[in-house]
C-alpha cells in the first residue's frame, strides 16, 4: 500500500486538510518508541486503489528542536522506516511562504515525489495577496494546488493528484535539487556511499544527527563519526551556511510569486495582535477567556454529568433488583458498572474543554496565549503552553493532562503533567465542602463582603496553584534533558474555525481517553471491589452477627439495618483490615482506620471519600447528606481516650492531605498512557503523597 505523508509547518492548515481527506477513518497511535502522536488513515480512491495517509507533526526544518520534529527527521532519514512515504504532500500557508519554504526546499532535496499545496487562499484573497506561481513551478518543477482547507477548495483535486500518482507511481513528479553542497559536504556524501547511504541530502542529515538517530547501530555511529572527522565536516557552521543559502535562494522566488498590494499597511492580524499580545490587556483578555472556559467546563458539563450519573445509578439499581443475588451481580453492580460510569462521566468535561481549545486553536489565538506567557512560565521550568493545562485542571486534571500534547519540548511537557494534579479540581469540591464545615462557620467577613467558607475554598485553590509552580521549579532542576528549551513559534493569521475540524478534534480526544484510560480504570475498580466486598471468613461472619444483634437491640428499620450491615462488613473486609493496618502510619496526621478506608476507596475518585464516610457511619452512600454526616462524625469518639475523633486540627489536616495527595486512579491511568510507562505515574504518586503527608503532619501537630 502506498504511503502518503502530509508535511508542513505548524499552523499551515495541514491537519484540517488531513481531516477533510480522511474523515472518521483516522487512527491515532504513537510513532514507534516515542509518545509523539501519529494520525493516519487508509482511504480508497476513485480508481479502487487504497492508500495510507499519515499526518506528520508540524515541523519547521530538518534541524529539530523538539521531539515532534525529531520524529519527522528520523523517519525521512531511514528508508526502511515503516512510515517512510512514497509521496509527500507539502502543505504551506500561502501568506507565509517566506517561512514555510525552508522545510519545503529541504524536502525537495530528499528526492521524494512532492506535491505542493498552497493553503489558505481565502485568507490571501481577503488580505489582497495576489499569486503568480509560474516562478515556483519553473524553479521547483512541482505540481502546485491552490487550496483552502476551511472552504474545502480543491481538496478533491488533492485526491485526484494522489490517484494519478497511484496509477503510475508518478514519473512526472521529478524535483530539481535545490541546494548546492560545499566541498566538505561533497566529500562526506562520497564517503557515506561506502557505508550504504546513496541519497546525498539524507547523508548530510544523518551526519548532522547521527548522535541521536535511533536506527543507527553503535558500529554505524562510529563509522559516521570517523567520516565526519576525516572530511572536515563542521556540523554547526554547515547547518547555518545551508540555512542561509536556502533563504537567499528561495526568498527572491517567493517575492516574484507572491504580490501583496497592502504590504505597507498593517494586516487585520497585526491590528488585533496589538491588543491580544499586550502585556496588560492581553493577560486580562486571556484570564477572561480562561475564566469563561473554566466556568463552561464546570457548569455546562454538570447537567450531562448528572444525567450520566443518574442514568448509571438507575441502571445499577435496576440490575440490583432484577438480577439474582450472586458474586457476579455484586461484581457487575458494585465493581464493573461503577468503574465504567467513572470513565463515561468525564466525557462531557473532556468534550467541552477540547471544544473550546480546538476553537481557540483554529482561530489562531492559542499561539498568542503561548507567546504571552512563555517568559513567565519559563521561570518555573514550564512552557507558555503549560498555562492552558494548569488553568483547565481546575475543572479536571484528565483533560488538562491530555491538552499537554501541544507542548513540543518533552521535558516541559513532562513537568506540566507532573504538577497539573496539584491544581484543585472539581472532584475535590465534595471533600472540601464537608471538611470546611468542620473548620469554618458559615458567616460573612470583611464587612459582609465575603463568605468565610468561600475564602477558604479560594485559599485551597490558590495553595494548589502556588505548589504546582514551586514543584515545577524544583523538578526542572532535577530532571535533565538535552532537548533545547527554546521555543520557535509562528503567530498564524486569524481565521474562522472549521466546524468539521473542531468536531473531529473533540471526537479524537474523547475516543483516545476512553480507549487509553478505560482499561486501567476498570481493572482498578475491580480490585477495589474485591478488597471492599471480601474479607477473612471469620471476620465477615462476625460482622453479620454483630449487625443483626445491634439492629434487633435498637429496633432499626430495614434501610438502617442494611446501612449498618454494610458498615460492619466494610470494617471486616480486606479494605477494612488494610485501613486498620495503615492506621499507625496515619494516626500522626489525626486520622483513624475509618479515614484510612476512605483514603483507600477514594483512590477510585476523590469524591468517593464522602460516600465512603457515609457508609461507614451507617447513613447510606448519599454524598448530599453531608449535614447528617457531619453530626455523626462530630459525635464519634475515640474508644480509648474518649476524645472526639474529628476536631479542628484533624479536619484541617485532612483538607491539606486532599489538596496535595494524588487520590485519583483516572489521573494515574492517563499519566501512564501519556508518558508511555509507569515510571512517572509512580514518581508523581510518591512526591504528591509525601507533600500530603508532611503538610498534614506539621499542621495537625501544630493545631492539636
Total DSSP E strands: 11
Structural class: alpha/beta
Q: Supply the number of helical segments.
A: 31
How would the global form be characterised?
elongated
Mean pLDDT: 80
What integer value in Å does the Rg equal? Answer: 30 Å
In the sheet with the most strands, the strands line up as 2-3-4-1-5-6-8
| Residue fraction in strands | 5-15%
Portion in helices: 55-70%
Uncertain regions: pLDDT < 50 for 5+ in a row? 618-627
Sheet of most strands: 7 strands, mixed
Spatial separation of the terminal alpha carbons:
71 Å
Concise description?
By secondary structure, the chain is an alpha/beta fold. It is built from 31 helices and eleven strands.
What does this structure look like?
The protein has 704 residues and is α/β, with parallel strands linked by helices. Among the domains are: 2-168, P-loop containing nucleotide triphosphate hydrolases (Rossmann fold, 3-Layer(aba) Sandwich), CATH 3.40.50; 186-233, no CATH class; 512-703, no CATH class. Helix content is 62%, strand content 7%. It contains 31 helices and eleven strands. The strands form three sheets. It has a seven-stranded mixed sheet with strand order 2-3-4-1-5-6-8, with helices on both faces. Strands 7-9 form a two-stranded antiparallel sheet. Strand 2 and strand 3 form a beta hairpin. Helix 3 crosses helix 10 and helix 24 (558-572) crosses helix 25.
Amino acid at each position: 500500500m502506498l504511503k502518503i505523508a502530509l508535511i508542513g509547518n505548524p499552523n499551515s492548515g495541514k491537519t484540517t486538510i488531513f481531516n477533510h481527506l480522511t474523515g472518521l477513518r483516522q487512527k491515532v497511535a504513537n510513532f514507534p518508541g516515542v509518545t509523539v502522536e501519529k494520525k493516519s488513515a487508509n482511504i480508497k480512491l476513485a480508481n479502487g486503489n487504497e492508500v495510507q495517509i499519515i499526518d506528520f507533526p508540524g515541523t519547521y526544518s530538518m534541524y529539530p528542536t523538539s521531539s515532534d520534529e525529531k520524529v519527522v527527521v528520523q523517519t525521512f532519514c531511514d528508508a526502511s522506516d515503516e512510515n517512510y512515504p512514497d509521496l509527500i504532500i507539502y502543505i504551506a500557508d500561502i501568506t507565509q511562504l517566506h517561512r514555510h519554504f525552508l522545510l519545503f526546499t529541504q524536502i525537495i532535496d530528499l528526492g521524494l515525489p512532492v506535491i505542493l499545496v498552497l493553503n489558505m487562499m481565502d485568507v490571501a484573497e481577503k488580505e489582497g495577496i495576489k499569486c503568480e506561481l509560474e516562478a515556483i513551478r519553473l524553479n521547483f518543477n512541482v505540481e502546485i494546488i491552490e487550496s483552502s482547507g476551511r472552504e474545502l477548495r480543491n481538496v478533491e483535486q488533492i485526491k485526484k493528484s494522489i490517484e494519478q500518482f497511484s496509477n503510475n507511481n508518478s514519473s512526472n513528479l521529478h524535483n530539481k535539487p535545490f541546494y548546492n553542497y560545499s566541498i566538505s559536504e561533497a566529500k562526506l556524501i562520497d564517503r557515506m556511499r561506502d557505508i550504504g547511504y546513496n541519497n546525498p541530502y539524507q547523508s548530510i542529515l544523518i551526519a548532522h544527527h547521527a548522535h541521536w538517530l535511533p536506527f543507527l547501530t553503535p558500529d554505524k555511529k562510529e563509522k559516521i563519526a570517523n567520516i565526519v572527522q576525516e572530511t572536515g565536516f563542521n556540523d554547526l557552521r554547515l547547518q547555518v551556511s545551508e540555512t542561509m543559502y536556502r533563504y537567499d535562494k528561495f526568498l527572491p522566488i517567493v517575492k516574484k510569486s507572491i504580490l501583496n498590494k497592502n504590504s505597507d499597511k498593517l494586516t487585520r492580524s497585526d491590528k488585533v495582535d496589538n491588543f491580544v499580545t499586550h502585556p496588560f490587556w492581553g493577560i486580562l483578555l486571556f484570564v477572561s477567556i480562561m475564566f469563561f472556559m473554566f466556568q463552561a467546563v464546570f457548569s455546562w458539563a454538570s447537567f450531562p454529568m448528572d444525567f450520566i450519573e443518574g442514568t448509571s445509578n438507575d441502571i445499577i439499581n435496576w440490575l440490583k433488583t432484577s438480577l439474582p443475588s450472586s458474586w457476579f451481580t455484586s461484581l457487575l453492580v458494585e465493581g464493573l458498572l461503577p468503574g465504567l460510569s467513572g470513565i463515561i462521566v468525564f466525557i462531557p468535561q473532556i468534550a467541552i474543554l477540547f471544544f473550546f481549545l480546538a476553537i481557540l486553536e483554529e482561530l489562531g489565538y492559542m499561539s498568542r496565549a503561548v507567546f504571552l506567557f512563555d517568559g513567565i512560565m519559563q521561570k518555573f521550568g514550564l512552557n507558555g503552553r503549560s498555562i492552558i493545562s494548569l488553568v483547565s485542571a481546575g475543572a479536571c486534571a484528565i483533560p488538562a493532562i491530555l491538552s499537554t500534547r501541544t507542548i513540543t519540548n518533552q521535558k516541559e511537557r513532562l513537568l506540566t503533567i507532573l504538577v497539573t494534579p496539584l491544581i484543585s479540581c472539581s472532584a475535590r469540591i465534595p471533600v472540601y465542602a464537608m471538611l470546611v464545615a468542620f473548620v469554618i462557620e458559615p458567616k460573612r467577613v470583611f464587612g459582609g463582603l465575603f463568605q468565610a467558607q468561600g475564602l477558604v475554598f479560594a485559599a485551597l485553590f490558590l495553595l494548589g496553584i502556588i505548589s504546582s509552580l514551586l514543584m515545577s521549579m524544583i523538578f526542572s532542576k532535577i530532571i535533565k534533558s538535552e532537548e533545547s528549551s527554546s521555543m520557535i513559534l509562528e503567530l498564524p493569521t486569524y481565521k474562522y474555525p472549521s466546524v468539521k475540524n473542531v468536531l473531529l478534534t473533540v471526537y479524537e480526544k474523547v475516543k483516545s481517553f476512553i480507549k487509553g484510560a478505560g482499561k486501567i480504570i476498570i481493572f482498578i475498580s475491580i480490585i477495589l471491589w474485591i478488597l471492599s466486598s471480601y474479607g477473612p471468613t471469620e471476620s465477615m461472619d462476625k460482622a453479620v452477627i454483630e449487625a443483626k444483634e445491634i439492629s434487633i437491640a435498637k429496633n432499626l428499620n430495614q434501610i438502617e439495618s442494611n446501612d449498618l450491615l454494610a458498615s460492619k462488613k466494610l470494617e471486616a473486609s480486606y479494605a477494612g483490615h488494610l485501613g486498620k493496618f495503615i492506621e499507625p502510619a496515619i494516626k500522626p496526621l489525626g486520622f483513624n482506620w475509618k479515614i484510612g478506608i476512605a483514603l483507600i476507596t477514594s483512590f477510585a475518585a476523590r469524591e468517593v471519600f464522602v460516600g465512603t464516610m457515609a457508609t461507614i457511619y451507617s447513613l447510606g452512600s448519599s454524598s448530599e447528606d453531608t449535614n447528617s454526616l457531619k453530626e455523626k462524625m462530630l459525635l464519634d469518639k475515640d474508644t480509648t481516650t474518649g476524645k472526639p475523633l474529628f476536631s479542628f486540627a484533624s479536619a484541617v489536616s485532612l483538607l491539606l492531605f486532599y489538596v496535595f495527595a494524588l487520590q485519583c486512579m483516572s489521573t494515574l491511568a492517563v499519566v501512564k498512557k501519556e508518558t508511555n510507562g509507569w515510571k512517572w505515574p509512580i514518581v508523581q504518586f510518591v512526591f504528591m503523597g509525601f507533600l500530603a503527608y508532611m503538610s498534614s503532619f506539621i499542621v495537625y501537630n501544630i493545631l492539636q
